[in-house]
């Protein structure tokens, strides 16, 4: 019997002995006078009148013990290691047809020792920044290094782009966190959604060139000198997209929290279906995880207008997303790039091209394109320096190659006399 029930019993006994009225007892207990009279009639059978009759009885909606035992047997499997009550409840419903609330699952798991009940402590609180108002105003972009396949396959990296206004997620697994893979994902994002107003990233070397400092020299508090752009920074500039650098991981907390969720749910989901390769991981990501995220965790923007801009005819993604470098044309109209020599086609040679700078583009598919001013020129790879276009391409005679045989002496001075008609220096001195 609880203390409240004891207080009720004392008031009822006072009313039974006429020490107080039924109205006073009702006010003291907090019930109506009619309820007091009911309790007084039940009090004739004993003091249990103040205890609810359903106490100690099982609920009519109580789940059977067999269902609990079956659920805990399933969750005890190593495949579900580390699952929390919410995620465990979803998998029980989707894969095993056991529909229970997450609170019931939490109680079952705590009783079975599969979940440790405890209060999570907040170490440090950061002030949250308000979301942007429109989709496409700001997209957070980052890469997560994690054992995504839990040792079942190769090392993979997850590159994610999440919209700041809606939390819409676009991601892909890659084999290397390189500039090329990030540019490839950027192209896929632009083709699907268009050009956002700005990207928000960290200060990794693929986004900005690091300033070199001398040993024991501090750059804190100094203005950053102008540095040449990286390949991604140049591509964003040509696309008209603003790049914003985050000064801390907390500043881009939306994409960081997304990685925290992915390292829990995505890893466990791929474990359940047995993903072992990067191809299978990307298939699961596109068919299962991204649809679930974009249907469950996205929010409506404050402004329904889309800030993404379409790709125009001037936006040649193949050229913009290439690895671009400047090279000088030699006197024989060749260009050197990446240890290779490329010969410019005779028909594309222009006035002023010799010793001029050209733009060399190494496309994502490995092709090489060379642009002089605003026009692309045809090139072919040379096997050795000084090579010339073949006859099939130019229609002109090619200079003969040396054969190693000595040529006969020319007789162009045959009829000239080289005898001296004047004294030599020695004769003049003597």
Biggest pleated sheet: 5 strands, mixed
**Residues in β-strands, percent:** 5-15%
**Silhouette:** elongated
Reading the helices and strands in chain order gives HHHHHHEEEHEHEHHHEEEEEEEHH
Mean pLDDT: 85
Distance between the termini: 148 Å
- Report the helical percentage: 25-40%
- Compute the number of helices: 13
What's the arrangement of secondary structure elements?
Blueprint: H1 3-16, H2 22-29, H3 33-42, H4 65-75, H5 85-96, H6 102-112, E1 139-145, E2 157-163, E3 169-174, H7 179-193, E4 198-201, H8 231-239, E5 242-245, H9 253-273, H10 278-296, H11 317-320, E6 323-328, E7 334-337, E8 340-344, E9 357-362, E10 368-372, E11 375-377, E12 379-382, H12 391-394, H13 425-429
Parallel strand pairs: 1-4, 4-5
Antiparallel strand pairs: 1-2, 2-3, 6-9, 7-8, 8-12, 9-10, 10-11
Helix pairs in contact: 1-2, 2-3, 5-6
Question: What do you see in this structure?
Answer:
This protein is α+β, with helices and mostly antiparallel strands. It has helices at 3-16, 22-29, 33-42, 65-75, 85-96, 102-112, 179-193, 231-239, 253-273, 278-296, 317-320, 391-394, 425-429, and strands at 139-145, 157-163, 169-174, 198-201, 242-245, 323-328, 334-337, 340-344, 357-362, 368-372, 375-377, 379-382. Helices cover 33% and strands 14% of the residues. The longest helix is centred in the middle third of the chain and has 21 residues, at 253-273. It starts with a helix and ends with a helix.
